[in-house]
């Protein structure tokens, strides 16, 4: 019997331990999923506009300046919490904000935006969640950053908060160049 | 970059927002053609609920799971093949959404392992067996 | 007060474990006296720590951080007590308690004339206790003072308030943690190069493996029983990482039980048994790591804390590294040039071992593969039920076929002629039973037929062997193997032939499925001890008469604001009728799910048989040892 064969479990064992150590030590969230859209053209969609009779067609919206696509709903508390930061972003130059109203009621959303202020240049309506699926959405709120060439560069999951706003904005600023 | 843990805000979502809390497929989702419905169920059992802890969309009560179940039925109605439906989903959510790991370069080892081990082990046992003839 | 008692006990237990591990052997008399002290002390202080936490739950002492986080005064008493081990820190105290119990058993059961061997074993077991005790004190101490006094606790997940789940951890841990004794004994054997003729180490290992395996079997089953009765869609196994973590030691434990038989009879395969003893417990530790480190997400995982993961991983590296290197160096002393004939008891046991190991390796790979791919390729993939079903089920088929007849194979060599002669009546019996079953049930399904055939194959063999008093076949084995047959019957029936009907129903509506009619009688609001619920009342009839009233519920537990669904189940030997109340209201109606799960009860009955076989085997083993 070849003695060296018993070395195999030893080596495998230490390899496995190393992998586990690596995964523990890097900054990693096991429940987080990477976006499939990064570095790809923003998904095409057609959505009924919330405020007027128009239809928003996506390819007219992307390709000129930086666009933030923010999925939100009135029934979503974290969306309400992040709204002030969305407004802040809307005041920054060179950024266009498009809101996608996810599974909501038009009248209620209009009221909500009137009350809280409307930071979006356009609001599209996604009644059944199909636009969300096209963007690989897990839940709301989520914000996608699309660069000047219409390529998705970044996906932000969850509400933007006081702690995260600064870093998020600096990520966007990088794309302005 | 600090990212909010996915399940934290989702739990918040469910507790305050989502009022429909079904436990897997609802009667209105069922397709009229039982064969097509069975196909939909089979595909669903293979799709992971990406916002749950370890369930298929067929088992899950999450809103996204329901949306994907409806989407799959819609696609079947439109005449898509199983492969087209899987591709549609992986284009948007990645291979992570497949509970049956797809056969690609990174998973060849995974799929060959059980069979390979069987063959190797079998040969080892055979080695021990043959020599008994000498005894 | 409890915090002080608890913490003191923890530190004392740590101290004793340190001494137990690092004490030098001086004289026989001193050894026995000293180690008696260590072993008893360890057990006493681990018990005090564990039971004082339990007392804290019993009286709802919210000055204890752990009790505050996981309990509420409105909880039923039994669940307050079960909450002791229903959280990470408390369950680690259970780990330590079981380690200490087995520590004590090693001391008690091993013959003191093999003093050096006992000493080495206790050193290793002591080191394991030391490691886990340090883990608790450094990262998972339940006895922490609440900074501000709270009048009420944070409650507890209502999904976990279930009788099966309440007793699942103690049984599971006796199994899971009990394999530590086999590990320690194996390491001691390797260190001292103990000859089997000098010290019957294989008998010691066998005692502990039998105890651990028996309780692990029932522990896993209790988890599945909980899942089936509580989760609401008739499933009982999900290939979840934590389930896999308990299944792997079970597989290797089964392999161990069988290969120990060969060591007993022929003194060969010693290296293999030593390796298995090491691997089984290491898998328990790896499982603990996967569950508690936060490296995976799973419905079962406890709270996430990287320092815990790093500690367990380091301890695992030390323990495993030491064990493997020791094994590598010393295995040559246990080598024996024995060869086996395939058609013999040894050959078939080897084949069983071979398959158990492959299944275990596959489960392991499937569980950790996503992590490996993520680390190496930065890609996220999933390995779910389809993978495990496709790879494992085909492999179990030859194992089960062999399992039917192999117990009556002769040792050393058997002939094909004899085997065919003996198995013919059983093959006939199996075919008859399978055909009768299919005639009765009338559903033709390929996998189902295979499952039923295998189940009846096992049952016929064992039953006929028992009746005709076949040799070389103990009652315990018959009992346990027959149980496996029942288990397979239940699994086949419930997976392959499950029927489901979902409909939206209003009160007074009817639903028809197979020959059952379900009438929605009424819907009520009811109050439980710590919940409020909506309860549906359904009358279930078959063509002839009334079967039962089923009352599924949707419960709201105000303390944690969680909604649970409680399925209503009517059980018979032939099938479970399973009804779930979904969402809805009086206007739109309610979503009602009705399942027919054939033969489910046989899964649990089968496991009971296996458990009984195991218990009898333990009893027999301990009696033998007493008289030896």
* Main pleated sheet of chain B: none
Say what the CATH topology of the largest domain in chain C is: Four Helix Bundle (Hemerythrin (Met), subunit A)
End-to-end distance of chain B: 69 Å
What's the SSE pattern of chain C?
Answer: HHHHHHHHHHHHHHHHEEEEEEEEEEH
Question: Total strand count of chain C, please?
Answer: 10
Q: Domains counted in the coordinates of chain B: how many? A: 2
Helix content range of chain B? 40-55%
Oligomeric organization of the protein chains: heterotrimer
Any idea what the radius of gyration of chain B is?
22 Å
CATH C-level of the largest domain in chain B: Mainly Alpha
Cα separation of the termini of chain C:
47 Å
Give a verbal description of the structure.
The complex is a heterotrimer of chains A (177), B (135) and C (628). Chain A has 177 residues and is α/β, with parallel strands linked by helices. Chain A has one domain (35-175): Glutaredoxin (3-Layer(aba) Sandwich). Chain A has six helices and seven strands, in the order H-E-E-H-E-H-E-H-E-H-E-E-H. A seven-stranded mixed sheet of chain A has the order 2-1-5-4-3-6-7. In chain A, strand 3, helix 3 (77-90) and strand 4 form a beta-alpha-beta unit. The model of chain A has no long low-confidence stretch (mean pLDDT 88). Chain B folds into two domains: 22-102, Helicase, Ruva Protein, domain 3; 107-135. Chain B has five helices and no strands. With 628 residues, chain C is an alpha+beta fold. Chain C contains 17 helices and ten strands. In chain C, strands 2, 3, 4, 5, 6 and 7 form a six-stranded antiparallel sheet that branches. In chain C, helix 1 (2-22) runs antiparallel to helix 6 (115-139) and helix 9 (241-266) packs antiparallel against helix 12 (345-377). Chain C is globular, with a radius of gyration of 26 Å.
């Amino acid at each position: 019997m070849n003695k060296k064969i018993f070395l195999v479990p030893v080596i495998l064992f230490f390899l496995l331990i190393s992998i586990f150590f690596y995964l523990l030590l890097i900054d990693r969230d096991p429940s987080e999923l990477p976006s499939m859209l990064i570095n790809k053209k923003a998904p095409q969609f057609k959505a009924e506009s919330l405020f007027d009779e128009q239809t928003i067609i996506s390819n007219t919206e992307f390709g000129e300046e930086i666009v933030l696509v923010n999925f939100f709903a009135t029934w979503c508390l974290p969306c309400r919490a992040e709204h002030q930061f969305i407004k802040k972003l809307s005041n920054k130059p060179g950024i266009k904000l498009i809101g996608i109203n996810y599974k909501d009621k038009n009248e209620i959303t209009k009221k909500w935006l009137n009350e809280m202020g409307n930071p979006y240049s356009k609001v599209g309506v996604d009644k059944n969640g199909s636009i969300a699926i096209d963007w690989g959405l897990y839940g709301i709120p989520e914000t996608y950053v699309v660069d000047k060439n219409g390529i998705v560069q970044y996906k932000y999951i969850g509400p933007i908060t006081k702690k995260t706003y600064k870093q998020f904005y600096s990520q966007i600023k990088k794309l302005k160049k | 970059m600090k990212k909010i843990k996915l399940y934290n805000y989702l739990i918040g979502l469910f507790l305050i927002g989502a009022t429909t809390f079904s436990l897997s497929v609802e009667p209105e989702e069922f397709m009229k053609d039982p064969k097509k419905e069975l196909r939909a169920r089979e595909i669903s059992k293979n799709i992971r609920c990406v916002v749950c802890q370890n369930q298929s969309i067929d088992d899950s009560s999450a809103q996204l799971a329901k949306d994907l179940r409806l989407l799959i039925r819609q696609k079947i109605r439109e005449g898509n093949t199983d492969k087209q439906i899987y591709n549609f989903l992986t284009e948007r959510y990645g291979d992570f959404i497949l509970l049956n790991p797809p056969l690609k370069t990174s998973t060849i080892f995974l799929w060959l392992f059980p069979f390979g081990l069987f063959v190797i082990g079998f040969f080892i046992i055979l080695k021990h067996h043959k020599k008994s003839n000498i005894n | 007060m409890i915090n002080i008692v608890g913490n003191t006990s923890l530190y004392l237990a740590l101290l004793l474990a340190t001494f137990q591990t690092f004490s030098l052997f001086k004289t026989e008399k001193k050894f026995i006296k000293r180690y008696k002290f260590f072993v008893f002390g360890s057990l006493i202080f681990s018990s005090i720590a564990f039971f004082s936490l339990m007392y804290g739950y019993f009286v709802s002492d919210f000055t204890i951080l752990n009790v505050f986080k996981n309990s509420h005064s409105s909880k039923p008493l039994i669940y307050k007590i079960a909450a002791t081990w229903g959280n990470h820190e408390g369950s680690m105290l259970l780990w330590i308690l079981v380690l200490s119990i087995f520590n004590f058993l090693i001391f008690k059961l091993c013959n003191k004339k093999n003093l050096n061997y006992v000493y080495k074993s206790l050193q290793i077991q002591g080191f394991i206790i030391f490691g886990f005790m340090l883990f608790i004190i450094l990262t998972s101490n339940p006895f922490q003072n609440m900074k501000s006094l709270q009048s009420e606790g944070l409650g507890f997940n209502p999904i976990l308030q279930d009788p099966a789940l309440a007793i699942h951890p103690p049984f599971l841990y006796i199994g899971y943690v009990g394999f530590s004794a086999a590990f320690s004994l194996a390491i001691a054997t390797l260190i001292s190069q103990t000859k089997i003729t000098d010290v019957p180490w294989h008998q010691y290992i066998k005692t502990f493996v039998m105890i651990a395996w028996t309780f692990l079997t029932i522990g896993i089953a209790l988890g599945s029983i909980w899942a089936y009765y509580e989760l609401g869609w008739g499933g009982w196994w999900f290939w979840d990482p934590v389930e896999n973590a308990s299944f792997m030691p079970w597989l290797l434990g089964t392999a161990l039980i069988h290969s120990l038989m060969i060591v007993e009879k022929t003194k060969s395969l010693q290296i293999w048994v030593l390796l298995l003893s090491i691997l089984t417990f290491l898998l328990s530790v790896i499982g603990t790591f996967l569950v508690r480190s936060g490296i995976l997400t799973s419905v079962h995982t406890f709270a996430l804390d990287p320092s815990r993961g790093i500690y367990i991983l380091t301890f695992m590296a030390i323990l495993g590294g030491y064990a493997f290197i020791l094994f590598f160096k010393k295995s040559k002393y246990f080598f024996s040039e024995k060869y086996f004939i395939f058609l013999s008891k040894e050959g078939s046991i080897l084949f069983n071992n071979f398959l158990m190991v492959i299944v275990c390796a596959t489960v392991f790979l499937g569980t950790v593969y996503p992590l490996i791919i993520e680390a190496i390729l930065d890609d996220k993939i999933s390995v779910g039920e389809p993978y495990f079903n496709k790879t494992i089920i085909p492999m179990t088929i030859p194992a089960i076929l062999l399992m039917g007849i192999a117990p009556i194979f002769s040792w050393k060599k058997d002939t094909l002629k004899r085997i065919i002669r003996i198995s013919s009546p059983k093959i006939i019996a199996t075919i008859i039973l399978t055909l009768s079953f299919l005639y009765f049930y009338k559903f033709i399904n390929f996998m189902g037929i295979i499952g039923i055939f295998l189940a009846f194959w096992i049952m016929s063999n064992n039953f006929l062997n028992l009746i005709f008093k076949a040799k070389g076949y103990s009652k315990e084995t018959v009992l346990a193997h027959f149980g496996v047959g029942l288990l397979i019957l239940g699994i086949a029936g419930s997976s392959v032939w499950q029927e489901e009907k979902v409909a939206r129903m209003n009160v007074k509506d009817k639903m028809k499925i197979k020959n059952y009619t379900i009438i929605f009688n009424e819907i009520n609001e009811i109050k439980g001890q710590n919940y409020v619920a909506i309860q549906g009342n359904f009358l279930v009839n078959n063509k002839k008469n009334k079967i039962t009233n089923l009352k599924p519920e949707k419960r709201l537990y105000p303390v944690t604001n969680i909604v649970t669904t409680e399925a209503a189940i009517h059980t018979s030997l032939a099938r479970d009728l399973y009804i779930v109340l979904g969402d809805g209201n009086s206007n739109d109606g309610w979503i009602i799910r009705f399942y027919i799960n054939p033969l489910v009860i046989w899964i649990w009955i089968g496991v009971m048989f296996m458990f009984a076989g195991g218990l009898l085997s333990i009893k027999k083993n301990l009696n033998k040892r007493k008289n030896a």
